[in-house]
Specification:
By secondary structure, the protein is α/β, with parallel strands linked by helices. The protein is built from 13 helices and twelve strands. The strands form two sheets. Strands 2-1-3-4-5-11 form a six-stranded parallel beta sheet, sandwiched between helices. Strands 7-6-8-9-10-12 form a six-stranded mixed beta sheet, sandwiched between helices. Helix 1 packs across helix 2, helix 6 runs parallel beside helix 7 and helix 8 packs parallel to helix 9.
Length: 336
């Protein structure tokens, strides 16, 4: 697909290239009427002012755009902290934005970062992100590194962990404590992260000679509120399931809160196993068993890959898939 340029906008608006340039740059003496005509032409053509290309040609682009889902989640706080440090060590500054799982918000942020001249974009994609959503950067040759959640149908790189192994480690841990059933809370359908973990859970059940139905999946937002409400709903008569596997430590924290309100003892009345291994895992009482998916390392590697792609001028898909590690703590009991 040929990139729409300033000449195309000028031709559509029937003005000179210089006039179109003044309008897009927000400077120069241009009448309101002419400005409106040029902006309308730019919108009709899907033009986004691309400072990145000029910056890269002159070797001046030292910015990496970062779009995350929710910076309030401790997982992403840790990820972006290490990402920013690694980018700085490579000689780059970062522009950070949060999409809050809103596909339209993510699209506008991508357009904005392209117009600001970033050399690469590190993205934790929102649910249902597809190739069309990323074209504003891809068609301009700006490399995208997807972190945590892979987008295998898109020509973007990936940095994250082996999700299938993550799910396997969590379910195997539950089975080793003598439990035979579990409930999995959180996650979005048709994402590589959830489906990978689901496959891992099912592999562990199969190895134990148990049916897949022994782990019920209750999907939903990755929030403390969701974790709390779900535990209350499934703990009929204050009788929780033997094991609750939470999509992340954020959801698990909500489960802890609901357990306290219900008078349930985590690690005694039921077990909790989570993913992320953020600092909150060891701060909770009792401490939380969690699969470490190395948010800091993922962020640092993503920044390094972005820097490499900017230096080499390439956007070829690369994959960095780390092996997760189960960190066992007091929230998973040994009683059946």
């Amino acid at each position: 697909m040929r990139r729409v340029g300033l000449k195309d906008v000028a031709a559509r608006a029937r003005v000179s290239v210089a006039t179109a340039s003044y309008v897009m740059a927000g400077r120069g003496r241009v009448s309101d009427k002419t400005r409106d005509i040029v902006l309308k032409a730019a919108d009709e053509l899907g033009f986004v002012r691309n400072a990145a290309a000029a910056n890269l040609r002159s070797g001046q682009s030292r910015m990496i755009g970062v779009i995350l889902n929710n910076i309030a989640n401790p997982f992403f706080s840790h990820l972006v902290s290490e990402l920013e440090s690694a980018a700085y060590n490579e000689g780059f500054l970062t522009i950070l934005a949060t999409a809050k799982n809103d596909i339209e918000r993510q699209r506008k942020m991508l357009e904005s970062m392209v117009s600001q001249g970033v050399g690469a974009i590190i993205l934790s994609p929102v649910h249902n992100t597809c190739l069309e959503d990323l074209e504003v950067a891809i068609t301009r040759g700006i490399p995208i590194i997807s972190c945590v959640r892979d987008l295998p149908e898109c020509p973007v790189s990936f940095v994250g962990v082996d999700d299938e192994l993550s799910g396997y480690l969590a379910m195997r841990s539950a089975l080793r404590t003598g439990k035979k059933t579990a409930v999995f809370l959180g996650g979005y359908a048709n994402t590589t992260t959830l489906e990978g973990r689901r496959a891992g859970v099912q592999r562990a059940l199969k190895e134990a000679g148990l049916p897949e139905a022994n782990c019920q999946f209750r999907l939903g937002p990755l929030s403390m509120e969701f974790g709390a409400s779900e535990l209350s709903e499934i703990s009929t008569g204050r009788c929780p399931p033997p094991v609750v596997i939470c999509f992340n430590d954020y959801v698990a924290t909500g489960v802890y809160e609901a357990a306290r309100e219900l008078g349930l003892s985590v690690g005694m009345d039921f077990s909790i196993i989570s993913f992320d291994n953020t600092p909150i895992s060891s701060a909770l009482t009792p401490s939380l068993t969690s699969v470490d998916i190395f948010p800091g390392k993922v962020g640092a590697i993503a920044a390094q890959r972005a820097a490499e792609m900017i230096h080499t001028g390439t956007a070829t898909r690369t994959i960095d898939r780390l092996d997760p590690v189960l960190i066992e703590r007091d929230s998973s009991s040994l009683t059946g």
